[in-house]
Amino acid sequence: MAGDRSPGVFLCRRRFGLLLLAAAGLCGGVSGVKNPSCHEVRTAFQIRQIGPLKLVPDVPTADSNLQICQHKVQTCCTRKMEESYQAAVRRERMENIQTLNFELKYMIVGHITAFQAAFESLLRFAENHTTSLFETVYRSMSKEAAEPVKELFTDISLYLLGAQTTVESVLFRFFDSLFPLVYSRLINPGMASLSEEYTECLRLTRQDINPFGLCSKEAVTKLEKSLWASRTFNQALGIGIEVLNATEHATLTKECSRALVKMQYCPHCQGLTLIRPCEGYCLNVMRGCFASISELDSQWREYIYTLEYLTNEMAGSHDLEAALLGIRNSINDAILHAQLNGPHLSATVDKVCGQPEEKEVRPLPDNIVQAKEVTETQALTMTHSNTLSSKRREFINYMKRSRTLYASLTERLCDGDLVMKDSSTCWNGEDVVESYTSRVVTNGMKAQINNPELKVRGMDPHVSNLIAKLQQFNQVSTQVSHST
Known about the structure:
Blueprint: H1 7-13, H2 18-31, H3 39-47, H4 79-136, H5 142-160, H6 167-187, H7 196-209, H8 215-248, H9 254-264, H10 266-269, H11 279-289, H12 291-294, H13 297-313, H14 320-325, H15 327-340, H16 342-353, H17 384-400, H18 409-413, E1 426-427, E2 432-433, H19 461-483
């Protein structure tokens, strides 16, 4: 390549096939051939929807106002075109990442919808299963118990969706509402309708009187870990979407935008609309642009491990389906305990709340302690368990394949049609060459100090916050699970 090394002469001496045809218009303008034209540049500008065609000159000129694509030869670019190119590369990078993330994001969103639908179906089934206890065994209080049961499962649903409450407070609220009914309908079946004041006294003193013994606390223990795992898993899916959205809308610095324009569109200024960047050159630019994003790698890998851990926690002894269906038996155990200790409870209540006003005695059929504990769950064919389990397995197997999402992001951005892989020539930011000779840096912020293509000044604050959020979620998820 001795002698004149201008891009026009350089290309005119090589046989590029289509590349030579694309460059022919401007090549003639630079090397003295008749009818210099920016036709190919205009066509590419239009096809890629870079901006208004009026920005592209008809013929190459010597434009000294260029800030990025500064070449010694005549050019088809203007300062306004450079501004349009910067807007274009920012839009194209977002679209590229959206395309790369589409399948993963679709999978997560789809499973959020599917899991929530399965949760709702399961909760309705468990609520009906619990309601049937009162309709078949404790008929005297079935109508009044319907509302507390409904509130119980509504609170459980809100907890699963992330409401600021605890399993203990949810269940204790239910038992507070249940005690006045058990006391007036089962322990003292002839008792008149209770006044609001007396009912409230029973509610407020339920934990002190402890009419249900250890049954209420055991119910909390049985539900706590199963509900926690499902709640945390649901939160994890939301965090995954948040991370992907942040990746897609990451802010590109001024240095990055300029480097991307230099890599993708500065060749156009010389009429080289078909030439592509060298692979190593592209990797340096992308790794510099997405240095902050690549720092998500370690916490994203840990996030996938956390998902896998939660999936295992949601199976076996902490199976959500078994826990929700078991609420019926826990309530029945609590009621039986209260009935067996009826005389003692009545004496204690009389001391604390006094005696209610006596009205007409109404004998009720359920005033005898049940001879047989209702512990047998009917042989109901349920698809909820299989459905949720299979969805969880499918989901986690897919998510495992995304462990290297942020470690491989820059390689994927430089894959496909963007770079030259099977050609003997490529663009290195300054000229058309046979190979890229500069050092190719690795991913991450530290490595960018040696990046020859752009300077990386520091972490993106938004990405830093996201990394901290992921880290906190991963730590809390594993720590809390071991303490519940």
